[in-house]
Specification:
Oligomer: single chain
Distance between the termini: 18 Å
Number of strands: 7
Number of helices: 0
Helix content: under 10%
Largest sheet: 5 strands, mixed
């Protein structure tokens, strides 16, 4: 994602949908730890796909592997009614 991208988390009926964060990792054995604004939201192993239901807002999404390699991305989550 680019910094100006945003995610819609509600559908036409205003039901909250999960957002799935995906990451390709160089190691098949790697564990990745995920954070939204420094709050731990889960870990993934082998297949790095994590489903979450964040509230609308701006966040710093961070993914860190066991070796300390880190990826950070500013994201914005909006409800469908905010568009």
């Amino acid at each position: 994602m680019r910094q100006n991208d945003f995610l819609n988390v509600t559908n036409f009926y205003e039901n909250v949908n999960e957002v799935i964060f995906k990451l390709a990792h160089h190691s098949l054995e790697g564990t990745v730890y995920w954070y939204l604004d420094s709050k731990y939201i889960g870990k993934t192993e082998t297949f790095h796909e994590l489903a979450v239901s964040p509230k609308p807002g701006k966040y710093l999404l961070t993914a860190v592997d066991k070796s300390g390699n880190e990826l950070r991305e500013q994201i914005e989550v909006k409800s469908a009614s905010q568009n």
